[in-house]
From TrEMBL, chains A, B, C, D, E:
Stretches that traverse the bilayer: 297-317, 329-349
Location within or outside the cell: Cell membrane; Membrane
Bilayer topology term: Multi-pass membrane protein
InterPro entries the UniProt entry points to: CorA_cytoplasmic_dom, CorA_TM1_TM2, Mg/Co-transport_prot_CorA, MgTranspt_CorA/ZnTranspt_ZntB
Gene: corA
Family: Belongs to the CorA metal ion transporter (MIT) (TC 1.A.35) family.
Entry keywords, A to Z: Cell membrane, Ion transport, Magnesium, Membrane, Transmembrane, Transmembrane helix, Transport
Name of the protein: Magnesium transport protein CorA
């Protein structure tokens, strides 16, 4: 999931366009379908075992939300598609999980694809494709696997919290998408936290190779998130401007709200991106500073002891006639000279602020 | 306040849209409401204890400015909202303090959100969200806490300075926003001063690690200011182009003036941003120069004394037959040779401009 | 092929505009023409030896695809051009293989040029120009040499798989172009794999010069791919918006699908481009880290042994009176002192995390 | 003048909008007003002592140019403003010298602000704000101090050179602005010369710290010039498109000419900007090269003499039995070995091109 | 020529606008005029000595191309301008050779300026300004000196090759401009070749200072070419969209062809620009790698011989009691120890891949 999406496309090269091929990794997942059917007065919640059961739901007088998990069940999805009269390319897009967020406006339904982002147990960012079909009184959602960010939506439908039960399907689509976008903020925070950790690390002088790799990985993660989030703004924009009975004028203000949130997320992402560049700068500077420190130690040691060793070498020479060798105190005088030299050096390096 | 805004959003993930939740840190602030009611002839200034008192103010024949401090008092704000017939999403935005500057045009009022920036006691840049509601003859302002940049506005209303008492509510909104934008210049100056200090520091050879961190922090501060200021230009632009009785044609020139100021602030911010990049360049160069200096000291010391030590080593050898050892003056001749070598080296390094 | 295209233009400088000159390297290729003529009921597939045979094909009641390999056969192509009434500049563009992707809308045909990308045996990316002429019931394709990415298309026409036999020539053009774009994904994957290899290499400390060169080469390859792919988006866009009987409204959705794929490929390319920048960063950092390591070894060795050597030098001096020399255990004491110094140094470097 | 403009804004924070406050440094300048009144037949030139004298000039049948120096004389300017019926915000902008170039189109006059750039005695770039009011038969100009770039204009009016005396006030405005823009080229040249000097310096190995600072200063100067020049293009553009009797169709071609010049200046600025980046690159590279050189000297010295010293050390050992010590020629043989080693080393370094 | 253009503008600062001043360096060039007068049936080619001869050419029933070399002959050009009724600003632009490519649409003629680029004998890129006047049945061209890229055009007119003799003056302008643009490809190739040479140089480890300078020079050359080529696209675009009898609809396709070529040249320029950045990267890396190599040699030499020297120093001490000194084989044992140490070190460095 948290991997570059293109890989998956491979399975399809050379296939006829419009052929439905699941391009994800979760081929063994069980099909799981849940249905909510509600209006102001009542709310029925069902777990279904196969798509045929869906066809028995009466779609008039109520709003129906059908949530299908398990994109590997291609034939089931195809049946569903036929029932709701979906275009073959739409069905192909639903099961091909490397779509970028987009909206396709069809005559009697809207098709929206977006990326749901959430943290898994190990705090890795997981990206999962969710497709929405918005009809006059139903919303279909398609997900790869069961975990999702819609629990608060379920809660609200069940207990009639807020406006949801009094509104049309376009409002249902809105709260579903809002739930997805709200979770982007959680992800943004995770990234912010990681950046802070890196910063503390680098500032405290940690210049291990792995940190470089980790920073680059984070940079890439941000790149991927941008890819998931930036086109979504255009999608929301087009929903807002969509002219048909599917989207009622009074819900458009709500979509505007999602749009504002997306702008906020995008801006934060871009700020984090700049921060990462700064991190790399700090890291490079940190390495250079470290090198400077190493060089100073070497220079100080060498500068102090090489001249002293030279002096010792002088009086280790075996010339027949070296007058100093025979004075009584010359050994101690020499020590004195050496200590003076040593202290002079120390003083010099201190003045240069190397010590 | 001076922290990344997203953090605060967290509280709201999973909440129903349109639910009013205060997302700031100042939950214990007391509610403080002040009201100005004025026309050409008179000006009444009141401090109110609760929102109900507002409802008694007669809104005809005068311009009323109601300034509410304490966004944590959500229920009070809700009452106010109902009285002035504000949309639920507007109320949600007022108390959710991580909004980016924006304008929402409603049928009988304008809703404007912007960021007030000022320096606190420690010269840190503080950002506080201010929301404005512009009605036909009133302006409502909502702030998190009491301190603000509106004192000059109060003064002008009280004493009827300038045009304010002879103009409509759109002019009041203008002078309030103008006060906010005028303070951006003060902030810009603070940043300019900081950059100058960094520059002097780096140029005088200070390459401490902390300076790197500080520069990165400043860079981030500028990023945040951009986020507060850049969208505001669009807001002003839309006020200028707004077609309704709320904004009179003759006040539009004044909004144009704010727009010009914002362009100036933005340009300065971008210049400072480039300067920061230059600072980083200078810093990196400074480190490299320092390393160069260290290396030169090492090289000079080593290059001078290693050969001399070698010579001393030669005559410290214990061969039975080393003719030079037995000449009378060879010790002094050797000293001479060594001094010549030493001076030659010094000369060489001087010519290379290393000394 | 995988070389910068401009080189080939050279042959033409100074030639009259509109003169057909083959600008590629494959001048000795044999002419190879294949023709598919099909409708819902039947499909005839022929291999032709010269262009005259084409003129005998009855173009009514069926869709005809004529695929010509061997752009060096300029006169044959000219004959074909005359038969199908093609503009001289179109013919010039077909044989001049350094075209960038473009579309020319003529009265009764569309002329599309694009770049076919595929991996050769050595996994190098090969770029070959393919030109398409879309007429009311025929498609002409022109390629430099025989290998191409159209095998799946041939298969589908032969066996009537999918929709192709029931649709018009605009659908044929679509599946041909789709085949080309689908192969872009394979190329994208190759690039992704290469980047991964580089990353592993650099991370494991390989900083050989050649890797720098290879990365730069890959960067250039991506630049070239961008040049092949980015203008194609505009081409598809114009096909979608093309208003004539050549492109039927119902096939436009399919072209939209290609467009989406192109956006995906473009985004991936841009991500890879950023990754390459990161790679270069990692590489530079890797070199600096390596240098740091080298310096540490030097500093440790020098800092430990230079002072010890100095001490040994002291007691190698030949002064008449050095009291320590005559104490019985002084040699062993000195060893002790030296070992203590040695261990102290080790401890110091360990505390500095240099060991 | 050559300082960042924002600083001056400070004086105004908190003041009522529309209040005229001079924001420059030249508060003690004397007021100096000159007036040219001319038509095809005659030209009167006057020096005025106060603004009242202006009001006596008969504005019909001739073109009048009034040039006022001394923006600190706010009350005089206000009088002038009233006489010519100028908007309060216009007067505020005239004396507030931190305006960015702009045009305000009023009913019966045009207001243009731009930056005049010229070199002072020390070759520093000085920026001074000039405001223009274009009326039907007059042009007013407002400058901070006396020096300006309009001498050629004066000359042309006095002696009736060129078209000026036969044209309307819009042509006068044109030649005044043209004089300003022409001087931009001189400034551009100064910058080009500075860059050349830096380049020669760096190339000849000068890597003093001050050069880094100077380059950064130049970069900033270019940033400031961009700010003065780029918005001016939009100003000229709007003059060209202005639809009123103030700008006659036949003078528009002349404004187009200024526009072309501005594009040229802008492009040159951008090229110089890129050159400065290159300079920084060259500077960094220069430092690295210098370090390389230092390291080579150290490495050569150490690599040659450390092994030789080791050999000398060997035969300085006091073992009872070292056979070589007692051979007659061993001392000379050793010298031979050492010289061979020395030459071998030299050869090795030469082959590595370090010498 | 290959120098920054602004320099030449200097001569004109302070001159009245519209005054014709030649701004180039070739003031001593002789005037050279050639005229081609042709229609389908005939072609007359003349060399003229003065502009007066031009006025005798009958301009009806044929297309006339007058090519004037020697922009320093300002008065002659002025005469010509009067004869063809050209605007003074056009004449000024013709002789002012620092124009950027542009088109001026006048009532009965088009004025086009562009830059002709070609390699001189030393393979330097030379840029020369060429101005075109397109009238209903004539084209005037103005060049600084005699050499140009129009020989193929002359050939085609003389021998009636291609379409030229059957077409109008707009086609003549097209083939002239096409000749200029075709030469851009040659220049592009020269640049490509230079980059390849630099690459080989750097890769083979050449890090001389001069290469840095040369790369920066090339970068600048590309910047200048961009300036010559990018605005030309806009010029061609406007010719294509020009609505008058001067440009016939059927020639517009040909201009479109030039446009495509310009896009290709521009793209190649941008790719080369990126390549130059890569070159700089490679150069920097190369320097760092070289430094690494130097450091390794130093570290290896020092790390091996400093400890050995220390050991030798130990046994050079003069303590009365050093037991090892008196063992018979200790000298040889010591050699053994040293050799083991030496080999151990070698092994260590080999394992670190430093050898």
């Amino acid at each position: 999931m948290g991997k570059i999406k293109t890989k998956r496309h491979h399975k399809k090269v050379g296939k006829a366009p419009g052929s439905m091929i699941y391009t994800g990794h979760k081929s063994s997942k069980k099909l799981f379908i849940e249905a909510f059917d509600y209006n102001v007065e009542r709310c029925i919640e069902k777990e279904l075992n196969n798509v045929e059961e869906i066809f028995q739901i009466n779609l008039s007088n109520s709003i129906t939300w059908i949530n299908l998990n398990g994109l590997n069940h291609v034939t089931e999805i195809e049946k569903l598609g036929k029932h709701f009269n979906l275009h073959p390319l739409v069905l192909e897009d639903i099961v091909s999980i490397s779509q970028r967020p987009k909206i396709d406006e069809h005559e009697d339904y809207l098709f929206v694809v977006l990326k749901m982002l959430y943290n898994d147990k190990d705090d890795n960012i997981v990206s999962e494709q969710v497709s929405f079909i918005l009809g006059t009184n139903y919303v279909l959602t398609f997900q790869e696997s069961e975990g999702d960010v819609f629990d608060t939506v379920r809660e609200r439908i069940r207990h009639g919290k807020g406006r949801v039960r009094t509104m049309k399907s376009d409002y249902l689509l809105y709260i579903l998408m809002d739930a997805v976008v709200d979770h982007y903020f959680t992800i943004i925070e995770t990234i912010g936290d990681k950046i802070e950790v890196f910063e503390t690390d680098i500032f405290s002088g940690n210049v291990e190779k792995s940190i470089n790799k980790d920073i680059q990985d984070l940079k890439r993660e941000i790149l991927r998130m941008r890819r998931a989030i930036f086109p979504l703004r255009e999608v929301i924009n087009r929903i807002e401007k969509h002219e048909s009975e599917l989207i009622q004028p009074k819900t458009k203000a709500f979509y505007r709200d999602i749009y504002d949130h997306l702008i906020q997320v995008s801006e934060n992402l871009d700020i984090y991106r700049e921060m990462i560049w700064s991190l790399m700068d700090m890291y490079m500077t940190s390495i250079s500073n470290k090198m400077n420190e190493v060089m100073k130690v070497l220079t100080i040691m060498a500068s102090i002891f090489i001249p002293l060793t030279f002096i010792a070498g002088i009086y280790g020479m075996n010339f027949d006639y070296i007058p100093e060798l025979h004075y009584k105190h010359s050994y101690f005088i020499l020590w004195g000279v050496m200590i003076v030299l040593f202290l002079g050096m120390l003083h010099y390096f201190k003045r240069k602020k190397w010590l």
